[in-house]
Design goal:
By secondary structure, this protein is mainly α. The chain is about 70% helix and about 0% strand. It has six helices and no strands. It is globular and about 40 Å long. The two termini are about 20 Å apart.
Length: about 140
Amino acid sequence: MTQPLTEEERAILKGAAFGAVFLVSSAEPGAFSMIKESLAASNAFAGTTGLVRELLTTGALPRLPGGSPAEVPATVLPALRRSVEILRSKAPDEVASYRSAVLRATEEVARAHDGISPSEAAVMATVREALDADG
């Protein structure tokens, strides 16, 4: 049974998903690749359904985490764990869809420019770990 999400919870879910994409994209910087990667992430999110699609494709873009590249994971990874907790408690049928959407988007971003590099693969592993963590 799905319970309504608060605006704060919606912001956490969306921000965490886009933050995960940002982490992977930042693993291999480059202006041209950033454009291709943004399109890849948008397409992956647009391919979702139900509540997850609504969360990830409507409204304003989330504010991406600031700080140094070393500080960003300290914001994004806990937000991913929190997102899974929120969905488990309020929309348990959507957990797998959210997890799949985030992982698909990060993979599409990594593949968008010259395939998945070792640094992108390492970041994707930390994202997967955060999504798999039991709160």
